[in-house]
Amino acid sequence: MENQEEYLLNIIVNSGEAKSLAFEGIQMAKKGDFDGAVKKLDEAKEMQQKAHAAQTELLVKEANGEKAPFSILLIHAQDHLMNSITFVDLAKEMVELYRRLN
Predict the structure, then answer these.
(1) Which one of 1, 59, 69, 92 counts the least CB within 10 Å of its CB?
(2) CA–CA gap between residue 5 and residue 90 (Å, rounded)
(3) What is the spatial distance between Cα 91 and Cα 38, in angstroms, rounded to a whole number?
(4) What sections of the chain are H helices per DSSP?
(5) pLDDT confidence of 42, banded at 50, 70, 90?
(6) Is 52 a catalytic residue?
(7) Distance (Å, rounded) from C-alpha 82 to C-alpha 30?
């Protein structure tokens, strides 16, 4: 990736996809499809890892002296990533709860 916007869009897109996959996992668990739910959560984690990798690249660049310009897009990307992390963690707990209730 060549510029900050590419990194940020990568974070936003992959974080959003992770959250969507986690939501699908909850819906599958609600219907009793626990294998499918776990698969969706695994896919969500993969998307999160891609987003986190882009974030890490930005952090490394800044640590090496390439200061990232402050932008609303940067805040938006961080917001997406943090919400995704929280949502996927909560989704894992919900899937386990549905499993126990079943």
Answers:
(1) 69
(2) 29
(3) 10
(4) 4-30, 34-63, 72-101
(5) very high
(6) no
(7) 25
- Owner of token pair 């776990």: 38
Among 57, 61, 76, 83, the one annotated catalytic: 76
Instruction: Using CB atoms within 10 Å of the CB of residue 4, give its burial: 0 to 12 exposed, 13 to 18 middle, 19+ buried.
Output: middle
Sign of CA dihedral 83, 19, 89, 70: negative
d(CA 39, CA 83): 20
Contact 47, 19 (CB under 8 A): no
Average pLDDT over residues 37-43: 98
Q: What is the pLDDT of residue 3?
A: 84
| DSSP-derived 3-state class of residue 89 | helix
* pLDDT of 2 above 70: no
Tokens matching residue 18: 């992770």
Say if residue 20's pLDDT is above 50.
yes
